[in-house]
Structures are given as C-alpha cells and as structure tokens.
Task: structure prediction
Amino acid sequence: MAFEEEIKLDYFGCGMMCSMKERYERQQEELSYLIERKDRETRMRDAIIKEKDNEIMAIKAIQDNLETIKIIKKDLISIFEDLLNDIHPFYNFLSKKARSIEEITAIIVCKEEDIYDIWFIIDGSNFLLESKISEIFCDLVKKFSVLLFDILIIPKKKVNLENLGEKGFKAIYKKN
Result:
C-alpha cells in the first residue's frame, strides 16, 4: 500500500504541476495578447500623432501661403493704383537707380504705341557715366522684359525740360 499511496502522491503532484504549467501558459498567452494589444494601440496612437503633425504642417503652409498672397495682393493693388495714375512700375525702378548716379539730372519717358522712349538727361558726358546708364537699362530690360524700350542719353544743355510736357513726355525723375 505504501507503493499505491506513493503513486497517488506522484499523480497528485504531477496533476498540480500540470495545472500550474497550464495556468502559467494561460498567463503567458494573456500577457502576449495584452502586449500585442498595447503595441497596436501604440502604433495607432503614433499614426494619429503623425497625421495631426501633418495637418499642423499643412495649416502652417496654408498660413504662409496666405501671408504671401496678402503681400502679392498689396503689391498688385499698388501696381494697379500706379497704372490708374499713369505711373508705370518701371518709373519707380528707374528713379531709384537714378538717385545713385549724381550726374543724372532727369529721366523723361514717353510712350509711343507699344514702345517706351526713355531719355536720360545728364550733366556732363563720359564713358563711365554712359556705362552706368547702360547697366541701368540692362537691369530694366531684364526686370520688365515684356515691355519694349528705347533709350537716349542727352546732355542737359541740349534739352528744354519745360516744353516736353505738351508733347506727351513725362518727367519721372528730376534731381533737386
């Protein structure tokens, strides 16, 4: 009988071991399931965060575009106002450039058909001055390439600025 009791104990002990092993395996499966579920949740959360970041970047890009549009709108309104007042944008361009060259005393413009005649009235005459005016003209043609220009450099003593207005010429720059 001692042998039978020993078998029962071993069987009982094995049963307990098997039960513990099964419980351990179930816990492992549950933990694996929980880890997998948390991984899915984390991936989903990361995807949502990435999507929100993309949305924020898109909103910032739209805001930047709106700022650019506002600047362009302001520039266009200014250009249209100038055109309505018969001030072409290249007038300001030439005036700004002329201020940097002391020998230019005036710039006169007249539009005949599709060509703008531009007269640079200068005080004195030399190759360096004419080269500077040529650079201005090249910059003008590059910046306003859709327009046609004709240029003339005239010494101040050969032009009477008072009578030009009645012939359709407009002084866009006069040195003080």
